[in-house]
Amino acid sequence: MSDGNPQALALSFAVAVRTAAYYEPENAVMQQTTALLRSLLAEFSDAGGSVMIGVHSHCVFVGSKRIRSTVSTYGRFAYLIELYGSWSIDGLTFFEGLSDAELMAVLVILARDKNRGPDRLSERLYEAGITYVQVDLVGGEGTRPAVIAPVEAYAACIQMGEELTSGTDERQAANVRQLRHVTQAAVDQILQDAHSLVALTTIKDFDRYLIHHSTNVAILSVVLGQRLGLSKSRLGELCLAGFLHDSGKLIVRADVLNKRGPLDPSEWVEMRRHPGLAAHSLLDQPRLTPADMRAVVVAFEHHLHYDMSGYPRTTLKTTVSLFGNIVSIADVYDAMTTARPYRSNNFTPYEALDFIIGKSGSLFDPMLVKLFVEIMGRYPAGTMVELTTGEIGVVSEPPNVGMSFDRPRVRVITGGEPDSVLDLCEQADSAFIRDVKHVLNPGNKGEIPAVPAGLFGGHVANAAGLGGVGSETERPTAPTGPGVAGSGP
Amino acid sequence: MPEQPPVPHDSGAVARICSALHRAYRDLRFYPPNHPVVQQSLDALARVLLAFIRQEGSLTLGIEESRLVYDEDEVYSHAETRDNLAFIMFRDGLRAITFQSGLEQSETESFVDCLARADDLVRSEQDLVTVFWEQDFEHIDYQAADPFLSGGYLREGTIDALRDTVMRRLDEVGLERNGGETPRRIDLEVVPTVDLRPEMLALTTQEFEKSERVAEEPTTVLDDFAVVLLEMMSGLGKQQDDAELISRSVVAVLEAYLQVGDLNAVNFLLSELEKLEASGKVTDGLLGTVVSQAVSVETLRSLSLELAAAPPERVALIEGFLGSIRQWVFAAQLDVLAESPDMNVRRSLLAVLRKEGGVPAEHLKPWLQDPRWYVARNAAQLAAASHDPSLVVPLTRLLRHPEPRVRREAAHTLEGFGGEAALAGLTCALEDSDPTMRILAARGIAQVGGSAQEDLVAAQVLSRDFETRSPEEVEAMVLAYAKLSKERAVPFLDKLWHRRFLRPRPLAVRLAAIQALASIPGELAHGSLAQASKSGEGPVRRAAARALQGVQSSGAHRS
After folding, report:
1. Is 1.25.10.10 the CATH number for B357-441?
2. Which of A105, A137, A169 is the last residue before a domain boundary?
3. Which CATH code for domain B450-559?
4. Quick check: A297 contacting B, CB < 8 Å?
5. For B371-399, how does the pLDDT look when each residue is reduced to its tens digit (9 = 90+)?
6. Nearest-CA neighbor of A203 among B149, B166, B192?
7. Which residues of chain A from 62 to 101 reach within 8 Å of chain B, CB to CB?
8. Considering only CA atoms, which of A187, A138, A152 is closest in space to residue A482?
9. d(Cα B9, Cα A147) in Å, to the nearest integer?
10. ipTM score of the complex?
């Protein structure tokens, strides 16, 4: 294989497939892109005259070389990973002898064929008479780490949170190990399908605020870390740190923690001890790993702002760590979007995001804020919106990478076909069919769950997921079973 | 493309791979990673494993409690459970390992390294599943029987509770239908929207660069962690229990810094701790406790070894560090000093230990009695810096040490001590069989002795063999004699420089007498010198003239 930069080949391939989605084969741009790709394929061919571009564990590979995703390449690689997923393939091997025309045909099939699924790509390439490209199917060889459904990963985090907060402040060895495995499972899940996990963070249980909040902050932090291009092991550390950031609240006086009203100055003093208390309690381990150390740092820092305002007051620290800045955004976002009975005005996700944008550069790291908005979209999951076509629905998923950030997917509640999902990127005659007309705050709760109750399987008593306003029509039960979170078109 | 023919099932080859895997695992546990034995066994493993993968595409090993299986055939077992690879992996929840096509030798080495660390992982509450996950092998997959990873052990009701929460929340906003009744109308409030153009969210060039930098940054967390610990200490005051927990972590950080040799970070941490202690924010003595726990003999040894080969800036850094912590690690430093075979290392350590009052006597005393002569010698040398009177006795004892080098060092140190006790030792050394010892004793007595030693020194200069001794000893003795006896010594010295016809004196003895006369004030000595300056013997005449000139000029200077 060439000693050149394999990232160039992977990027060239991603660009070529994407170009094929928009341009006809005879278009000059398309031909230029294909020619460049073919020359790179030839350059990177190994001794056997082949080169494989694959996806494994949410990473793009060229041959056996893993290509790291960065902020600037994230969009193109995310597209490629999504594309492979939609075809249920792990890799494509290109053999010597592939002509420009054949390569062009492969790109067009990959980008434009709607009928995708296991074995479909092999069939389509065979039909097109393409013999110099080999398809590796998902799980075709050997084993892969077990992958669980998003709901199960989320539920495991909640369960772990319950176990850690169930009265004992001594974390047993088994719990520590399990906690690591749970956070690993969450990271694996986010790498595979971040949107589903983000949608699940909108569930929010006021009675178990701390448990849900810890889980949600961990998930939102990892999603932001992933967008930043952090390695998997660092995402694992970030997840653990996010999960444990508020553990000091378990030590804060219960009357202060659970007070249903504004805190007086002395109560604030008590409340503001929680970052230090969390950091301190996390130190109490026989041997601190780097992940534990990060958790301590993040717990201590999560109320310190980008401009070093906030608490606890520091004398030596001059900056907040990267993880601290990430968790700080996730923490504020999740806290703001959780309705509290004592608040006269609960925030919608839209408003919470607006607050974060407004405080960019002072309370929050501007670079991270921009990436966070890009991930969440202008209307984050859980936002209730009214569309210009009259439907009212809840944002279930942000727009795809590269699409306009204010065109999410919306699951209809009323005014249209209930539970159907509308993609605001959808166009007719080169114009968008619908836009967001209003952001709504339902019952002053700010945010509503972006996932239907039916997602969790079993019998849904007295309900069929999200009911439509004024609708008396029975609707089919929402999709059930593991592996489905949120809804897609 | 032509289909490849099916490859025959070859359990024997897989058994050989497992055997190579076991050997590499065992060697990596017993030898350091860069040891040739380890490298050989890792190479052997990679050779057989990569050859198999090339031929067969992949290799999946099933992991059972005490054996590895390949296509249901046992390909590995080991009688000793503790060293049984299958057990080690099974214990941590691994159930299958697959080596995929594209596997590289570096991956097999990392894989074996993980296995070799398995016992340590247990101690730090980690496991192989976590380590494999963090390694994120590109061509090694695994199956783990973890409750959460398989989803099967989720408590009954956990997912139901989530569903109930969703339903309850939807009901709260009027979206949940109750028993088929019409849902209540939702109270919908329109939220004012803010104009936000996408370009406002585009990353600037600096932000792009920053994003790439922070994502690629080395993953050390120690700096952040250390600062947080200091902040926590600063905020805690002297709450004993809390401070103890934090200081334990500070020790861990210091150990980690020292392991990678980051002395700048160590110095920063120590200086901040010192400030905290000085300001009374932490318990007195905390710094010393932390240092003595964190700095092991091993660390000192490795830093001392570095001293021999490091560039000057690094040497200065190490010496500075060793100097700053010396008071808390005397015992460990003396250990290293005693054991280091490298002379440069010993010199550097001695220099460090001699600084600022030297090593306290209680640390030195055991070393002064050490049977190894060089250890005792070094201790005697260090005793000079500590200047503790309680060391006189053990030092005096060293004057009878069989090794002359030890006796010399002891005498030299005692000379610096002065006082009666030291003089007693020096006096004893005057009769040592070792000429160097006698020289040292004479010089020492000349410095600190008095009339009580006069006779002893006189006995030396008057001894039969005196003139046969080395010029250096003769000079030292004669000078000591002159210093102690003053004018009383002049007749003897006057006789000494004169030529003797029978059995002529060596010139060195006569010149020493001239020099000694120059050290005695008074007319009598000067007269003898003046006479010598007119001697018919050139060397004596010149030496005396020079001495006289010196005496006169110093007299003029005094007047």
Report:
1. yes
2. A137
3. 1.25.10
4. yes
5. 888 888 888 888 888 888 888 888 888 88
6. B166
7. 63-64, 66, 70-72, 95
8. A152
9. 29
10. 0.83
